[in-house]
Amino acid sequence: MCMWSKLAVVAYILVFFIVTQGFAGAKKYGLGTIATPEQIAGWDIDIRPDGQGLPPGKGTFEEGEAIFLERCASCHGEFGEAFGRYPVLVGGEDSLVSQDPVKTIGSYWPYATTVFDYVRRAMPFGAAQTLTNDETYAVTAFLLSMNSIIEDDFVLNQDNLPTIQMPNHNGFIVDGRPDVPPGEPCMKDCKESVRIIGKARQLDVTPETDRATTVAALVLGAEAEQVSRGQDTFNQCRACHTLTPGEHKVGPSLHGVFGRKAGGLDDFSRYSEAMQQSGVVWHDDTLKAYLKSPAEFIKGNMMPFAGIKDDQQLNDLLTFLRLSTAAKK
Ligand code: HEC
Ligand code: HEC
Question: Where is the Cytochrome c domain positioned along the sequence (predicted)?
Answer without folding.
Answer: 59-147, 225-325
